[in-house]
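FYI - complex with adenosine-5'-triphosphate, inputs then prediction.
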Amino acid sequence: MAAPTGKPSAGTSISVRGLGLSFDGQAVLSEIDLEVPAGTTLALLGPSGCGKSTLLKLLAGLQKPGAGSIRFGTELVADARTCVAPERRGLGMVFQDYALWPHMTVDGNVGFPLEMAGVARPERERRVAAALARVGLEHVGKRRISALSGGQQQRVALARAIVAEPRILLFDEPLSNLDRDLRVSLCREIGDLLAQLGTTAVYVTHDREEAQTLAHQVVTLKQGRVVHASHRSGSQYNETF
Ligand SMILES: Nc1ncnc2c1ncn2[C@@H]1O[C@H](COP(=O)(O)OP(=O)(O)OP(=O)(O)O)[C@@H](O)[C@H]1O
Ligand SMILES: [Mg+2]
């Protein structure tokens, strides 16, 4: 992971071409083409088992494609022969179950990616405080994760995802463990945060309303294929596929 500079992160475009993956001869993703312009958000919708998380794992470098390619900007990060390691892709990730270390403090969790990148403690502390402020959690740094509510834990996970200024953020159903009111408000906050940061994002959800609140384009998968795509134009979504 590149050492953070302290400057706001600039997103990079994502280009997916003919992406495919099979497990035990069974196609899980087929002929996926996606274009995510720099600084925009693409939401992935679709029924359980349609391949949403698998597609995120391919973007993250946690899976290798069987066919096709993934480019971040002009950089080829994955094809049948190439697979850039996840920590070299400049990504932040937020999962449904938060994936925080419960025994560690909030500061410890959020600062972990910087520690891994070898950032010295004073700079780390400054950056952790800035990331926590961005998600509205200025005063909880010394608390243990287990002493926070679900919504607060997801904000911590968000702060950890942005602290190293990733060029791309990946979200896998980050709000589905939260109650409806919190989901609606946190979804808006994530949208505002992405706009402020200018980070490119791919956001998996089951919820069309959530997708349309956040995303510039919404792509629906079914049985591993793109079956529908729409782009936002003003307050409307226009079908593109
Ligand atoms: N490592 C694996 N080995 C074999 N099959 C897998 C593996 N990972 C995923 N699959 C299969 O791939 C398909 C897509 O799974 P995936 O987790 O991407 O779905 P999803 O759209 O994220 O579903 P959900 O909405 O329930 O999270 C499923 O049929 C799943 O069983
Ligand atoms: Mg999933």
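The pocket of adenosine-5'-triphosphate (ligand 1) is lined by residues 23, 28, 46, 48-54 (CB under 6 Å). The two ends are 36 Å apart (CA to CA).
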